[in-house]
Amino acid sequence: MKFFAPFRLAGRALRRNKMRSLLTMLGVIIGVGSVIASVSITTGASKQVEDKVASLGQNIVTVFSGSFSSGGSRSGWGNAPTLTVDDAIAIKNEVANVVAVSPEVRDRMQILANGLNWNTAIQGESPDYPQIRDWDIADGAMFTDADVRSIAKVAVIGKTVVDQLFINEDPVGQTLIVRNIPFKIVGVLESKGFNLFGQDQDDVVIIPYTSHMRRIAKRTFVSSIMVQAASKDSITQVQEDINTLMRDRHKSAEPDFTVRTQLELMAMATSTTRIMSVLLAAIASVSLIVGGIGIMNIMLVSVTERTREIGIRMAVGARGRDILIQFLIEAVTLSAAGGIMGIALGMTAAKITSQITGWPTLTPFTWIGIACISSAAIGIVSGFYPAWKASRLDPIEALRYE
Amino acid sequence: MNAVIKLSDIHKTYRTGEVDVHAVRGVTLDIAPGEFVAIMGSSGSGKSTLMNMIGCLDRPTGGSYFLDGLDVSTLDRDQRAKIRNDKIGFVFQGFNLLSRTTALENVEMPMLYNSQRISPGEQKIRSTRSLELVGLADRANHKPNQLSGGQQQRVAIARALVNQPSLLLADEPTGNLDSQTSIEIMGVFQKLNDAGITIVMVTHELDVARYTKRMIILRDGKILTDEIVPARLNAEAELKKLRLAQEAVKLA
Ligand SMILES: Nc1ncnc2c1ncn2[C@@H]1O[C@H](COP(=O)(O)OP(=O)(O)O)[C@@H](O)[C@H]1O
Ligand SMILES: [Mg+2]
């Protein structure tokens, strides 16, 4: 039989029973539709999470004081007095593929400026901080290593602080007061928005870590050390080397620090959406299988109904193979058409969901491809047995069939 | 001249559980090109079984069968399908048209299974020509349920002719038709036979058999008699007579 002829035949046969064809396709339409809708929603969600994690900065490895494993107590995490500035300097000097380091000291405090006051995060950092966080300075400049050495009273502030304290004013060059100490504002950061945990990242005042430790917090340890690896590939090596180095420096039985990478954070943050998508895909594939069974059922009915037609075709010269192909293509046409309608339905459902809930949705091309291929495959699998049965009919018996 | 059909001691035995049914038991028969043969016999005498073997729908359980000089008794399913497509046209008692499919599409159907590709345009030309041959070109786009029994059988004949077979086989083609329509169909056959097509037809009506050239009577799967039809009828003449008789009735 010629290449296009079976498709014409299949189209004709399916149009003849429009309602039945549509009902048969419904299983595949709903199956594929729910796959595409759920994948679009979960992909949109994980894309958003990934963007947030990426907004943390580039190739970041963070050393926290305290340990997850120390006696099951996590309370000391970030507050235990174990990390020092010397640790940070050692990491910068001794670990390969480290491009930037910032020892961090964090507090929340009331600040004053312009006769207004505001409660905000005061962060002690090194001048490397904007580079590590991939965070540009909008106005002015970042403080320098000289400022760190001289324990300078300088600050770089976030957009929210500007909005609260310097309405319609240029904050650069002005003064803000932290714990009665005046800090000169040297720069303003670009707006970065909310982070993964819903915190406003722009609500921040960044000062040299030395200034924070000596003048404000009056302590000798740092909360954490932010490290930037040279590339994505070197993140794991940097993490391991920091672990070794720190264990060497802190000769305690239990490690009193924790090294986390951005990759791990990414994995943690996306694990829920990944579980969700696996679950949804499982449910959707069950409905696809049900759709396939529906197609097989209808194809079996169709073969029985059309036994005489099969006999006639065989009598005029159709081979078993021609009959097999005819019915197989009918089944594949059913399921592929159902698949295409399902893709359209799923994308529409995702779009509507996105409009109602405001969640971002994204339909990956790979999944459209997977949906097309699997619906065609369902047609082949579920159509094969009925088609094979048809092809094995004896022409004389089939012609005699009432 | 070489025989189109050459049957030598053909047997067909159906094994149905306990008992064997000997449907055809030793038929030897030559049919030459251009013949018009009627196979007659009572019900159950093996006519259809013999026709199915001649038509390569079925395989004999004994004996040999040469069609156009080719031994077809040993061919497999696919090879027989090709022979049916190339060399044989079938007409059945029940017409066996595809319902909800136009006459033209029904006639086109055998060309779908040709080993050579025929363009859709060429398919349409050939089917239209085939419909013209049976006098139904004006009904090309009618579906079977819009056609009379006689017209449906003409569509079936057109379908049988579309691949230009050397042999036309018909199993009780007039079995479902009234006597006048039967004569019309016999007229179509006579015309085709005059044009050189070999026809073998099964019938149990002597009236119908008298339009053929040669009459074979089967009994219990064997040939009882095989003779030339003595006073062969001409369908056109008979139809004319019939019409005159009908006019006379109306006038009276
Ligand atoms: N498929 C079959 N299985 C068993 N017996 C059959 C089969 N087909 C036909 N027969 C038997 O073979 C004999 C001849 O049948 P058939 O050729 O149809 O006769 P006819 O066409 O002359 O009426 C009958 O006795 C019939 O019952
Ligand atoms: Mg019969």
Keywords for this structure?
heterodimer; A: 402 residues; alpha+beta; 10 strands; B: 252 residues; alpha/beta; Rossmann fold; four-stranded antiparallel beta sheet; binds adenosine-5'-diphosphate; binds magnesium ion
Helical residues, percent of chain B: 25-40%
Question: What is the CA-based Rg of chain A, rounded?
Answer: 33 Å
Mean model confidence by pLDDT of chain B? 93
Sheet with the most strands of chain B? 6 strands, mixed
Number of domains of chain A: 2
Assembly form of the protein? heterodimer
Describe the structure.
Chain A is α+β, with helices and mostly antiparallel strands. Chain A has two domains: 5-52 and 270-400, no CATH class; 83-251, no CATH class. Chain A has 13 helices and ten strands. Chain A has helices spanning 5-16, 18-54, 85-94, 129-133, 145-149, 159-165, 209-217, 235-249, 262-305, 307-315, 320-357, 365-391, 395-400, and strands at 60-65, 98-113, 116-125, 137-140, 154-157, 175-178, 181-189, 204-208, 224-229, 257-261. Chain A has a six-stranded mixed beta barrel. In chain A, α11 (320-357) packs antiparallel against α12. The longest helix of chain A is centred in the last third of the chain and has 44 residues, at 262-305. The two termini of chain A are 27 Å apart. In chain B, a hairpin with a 2-residue loop joins β9 and β10 (222-228). Chain B starts with a strand and ends with a helix. Chain B has one domain (5-95, 162-251): 3-Layer(aba) Sandwich (Rossmann fold), CATH 3.40.50. Chain B has a six-stranded mixed sheet, sandwiched between helices. Chain B contains eight helices and ten strands. Chain B has 252 residues and is of the alpha/beta class. Chain B is 35% helix and 26% strand. Chain B has helices at residues 47-54, 77-87, 103-108, 120-133, 149-161, 179-194, 206-209, 235-251, and strands at residues 5-16, 19-31, 36-40, 62-67, 70-71, 88-91, 167-171, 198-202, 214-219, 222-228. Bound molecules: adenosine-5'-diphosphate (ADP) and magnesium ion (MG). Adenosine-5'-diphosphate binds at residues 14, 16, 21, 23, 41, 43-49 of chain B.
